[in-house]
Amino acid sequence: MPRGLDRISPEILAGGLAAAAFAALTLAEGGTPVTSSAPAGLFLAGLAVVVLIAYRRSGPAPRLAAVAWGCLAAFTVWSFASVAWADSGADAWEAANRNVLYLAALTVFLVPAWRSASTAVVAGAYSLAIAAIALGTLIAAAGAADPALDFIDGRLTEPTGYQNATAVVFALAAWPALFLAARLEVPWALRPALLAAAGVLLEVAVLPQSRGAALAVAAGLAAYLVAVPNRARALPPLLLVGCALLAAGPTLIDTLAAMRESGEAASRAIDASLRAVLISAGALILAGAALARADRALTPGERAASAARRAVDVGLAALAVVAVVGALVAIGNPVSWAEERWDDFRAGYEEEEITAANRFTSGLGSNRYDFWRVAFEEFGDHPIAGLGAGGFETAYLRERESLDEPRYAHNLELEVLAETGLVGALALGSALVALVAGAVAARLRAADELGRGVAACALAAFVTWGVAASVDWFWQVPAVTAPVLAWLAVATRLRPGEPGGPAAAGRATARVCAAVALGALAVVALTPPWLAARKVDEATRTWRADLPRALALLDGARGLNPLSGEPDAVAGAIAVRAGEPETARDAFARAVEREPGHWYARLQLAVLADAAGDHDAALAEVAAAAEANPREPLVKETERRLRAGEPVTSEEIDAELLGRVCTRIGRTGATRFCK
Fold first, then answer.
1. pTM summary value
2. Largest Cα–Cα separation, the chain
3. How far is CA 671 from CA 62, 164, 357, 662, 675, in A?
4. Residue 571 resides in a domain
5. What does pLDDT average to over the chain?
6. d(CA 8, CA 10)
7. Residue 603 belongs to domain with CATH number
8. Domain span at residue 652?
9. DSSP string for residues in 305-327
10. Which residues have C-beta within 8 Å of that of residue 330, sequence separation ≥ 6?
11. H or E element in which residue 152 lies
């Protein structure tokens, strides 16, 4: 326990419970599915209600904290309002509910006034928990009959279910571990564990081979070195972890090619990776213990300490200059180099990029340029209100030039602009700016180095997250985004000394009103789609054993989530497999009624109409499917066969789609769909 913390304060209890929820989300597919995000949102909302009502000695919140909370609340309300004009009201509802989770998490950390020691306890515990998850994931993969099931295309996907999210979740937790491992305020016995945790986190983060995560970590490191106080003290843990990472890196990188082979090669590769991580962790524990001992034994005078700090600052500045000059020499003409990289980026996927044994040095090919193009064009078409929250997927299927089917734009800025317009972008942007400004202010004004370091870690985490979110879809992954918002909130609410007095009567009343509003919103908004999703999942698991019950479950899901066509689409797919075409036709028709752009339901209606002898209706439905998803090969092939008078079955369509999915999902998805 950090010095100066003689009891478990209320903020530690509340923050620790919230951090435990963040860790649980990491294990629950990153919190992306409604079945994990909704219960987490309800838990955090309940915790926020308790904090708002029971925590009375925090004093008045800084203006920046109030601005951040108010702007995120406005963004949440606007997202709910967009249900009215979104192509898919269900997607807008899901997106708005995710914002409720973030608002609840922000509330838990913004209401209390935080002492530096309290933040260290919560941040350190969170880092150790995520490190345990990272190591546990690696051990589980090594112990599996086929470790490649935890990987997609050779890249580690578990525990979040998405390679890039896995890398960023682990990397984010490394910042507080690195900082606390260097602090005298932390008991010397814990410092080696924190140092080893940082090493484990960054090493396991290599296995997804996420180039975006690597870029984000580099940016976060730069921010950390700029913001962290007493760089002379902060540098040794960084150097030790860097050496461990360099030593284990080649083994970890080589895992990609072996995992693509699966079988014996995959088993040997994952065993080698586990060995490398465990050896480096052991070495870091020993080095951390030596460092902690040295800190206790050596007490340099102020003059020597000041000279050391100046030397480190000069050395880092010189290293930065050398790095920049070296990079310029290596790349040659920077304009030509940038143009070449941009051309690579625009080109989309290339075979050499897909089959590369090391993605960190491969090309930049992806289809993100096309995602961003569509998002920008949709913003241009709907500049004020946007498409509606969660509306990118439907728009992209209509306008895409690639064959990718992303739900999200892989760029937070463009996605917010496209889906919620200038109104939503202004609200969310203002919330983030206020939180960052609060963390910067804390870095400048905190009374002790520990507090300034906490603020520095928050800023490093934000930069890491911000860079990653600019090339990916991490706003939709609560396990990634919620901790970052929490750290910024903590930094914004850092305070010196003891708690203030009881809140004034006006503030107490405002808190109670906010608690009632937030609690009611969470229960009313999050509960129905969560229960509906659970019923859909149960129906898909049990329909072979009890078809009537499965259809009854789906009927219940339909009532709970009246905006979604998914329960009816699933009911139709089940009815097709059960040999009940009339039931299937009715179900798909209801799905289309709720979501007119549901191309899969349209396609199934076309096939069913053709089987019933209604050729004109079949052509009309397949034309509607083509309008919603014009580049889908399955739609094109179905339309060709229908016009040629060739038979098409619903089973063929489902088999094609399922096979397509099963080639690109890991253990979680394979367990659910691909047995």
1. 0.91
2. 92
3. 48, 21, 27, 10, 6
4. yes
5. 88
6. 7
7. 1.25.40.10
8. 565-673
9. HHHHHHHHHHHHHHHHHHHHHHH
10. none
11. strand 151-152
